[in-house]
Structure formats: C-alpha cells, structure tokens
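Go through this chain for my students:
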Amino acid sequence: MDDTKERKKLKTLDLVYIAMGAVLISLCSWISVPTTVPFTLQTFAVFFVLLLLGGKRGTLSIAVYVLLGAVGVPVFSNFTGGIGVLLGNTGGYIVGFILMGLIYRIIVHFMRSKKWAEILALVIGLVVCYSFGTVWFMIIYAQTNSAVGLATVLSWCVIPFIIPDLIKLLLALILAKRLSAVLKIQ
C-alpha cells in the first residue's frame, strides 16, 4: 500500500474516532440529574474521550459536540440544543470543555504523554472550565436577573460538582486504560 492511501486511511479513521467521541459526549450529557447546573456524565465523557483518543482527536470531538449543539441538535443536557443554550447561564461550562481539551493537548504534548501529566492536565483543565463557566454564569445571570456574588455562584455551580467530577475523572482513567489496551488506538 502506498503512503498516500495509508495517510488517507488514517485520516478517515481519525474522523471516525472524532465522531464517536462527539456521540459519546452527547449520550452522556443526556444522563442528567436536574439542578442549577445539571449533574450529568458529560464531564466523564470529556475526560474519557481525551484520555482514549488523545489531545487532538479528543479536543476535536468536544468541538464537534459543541458545534452540533450550537446549530440546534439536542446534544446538551435534558435533550436541549441551540445557540441559546450556549449563550445562557451555563453555556460557559460547555464552552469550557473546549478549553479543557486544549489545555490537555498542550500539557500532554510538552510532558510527553506521561500518566501523571494526563491527570494534571485534566485537573487543570477542569479548574479552567469551572473558572470560565463561573465568570460566564455571573455575567449572563447579572444581565438577565440581578448581580450575584462569586460565593453564591460557586455554591450553585462548582462546589457540588468537585467530588463527583473527580470521581468521574478516576473512572475515566480506569476505563480508558483498559480500553486503550484492547482497542489499540494510536
């Protein structure tokens, strides 16, 4: 097989992985416990996709998921979609997933894909996602309701999610490690 066909095959395979990652995030976002910011398996899927597919394909999966939701496909929690969801109070947390993917990709690239670097990258990415989403929430909430304090928003949107998200990260690590050995994704 010549080199051009092999490259094309790998690119096609990459697209399949990216699409599968976006579908997994979508499916996991539908599993939801409604609160101000819904408890979903969305963050688990984001962690898992990044760990299993790597920074480039994982981040592209996240971006495809966000773009699908932006154009109205009901991929967000509670089967919602549309630009209004992204521009709403909690949209910053969804957009923050892309930042998490970019941070993961950069850190893992420079630390040469060591397991501790992957964990560090996901934790830093989660903190950035929380931060971006919280600032976004405060701005949008103040425009539509009234100003709200940082402590209040953290108590609504971050503090209840820290332990569940760390558990999701641990489960994603375990599952990605086991599946990567079987699937041999390169």
Remarks:
- Residues 89 and 137 are 5 Å apart (CA to CA).
- The two ends are 19 Å apart (CA to CA).
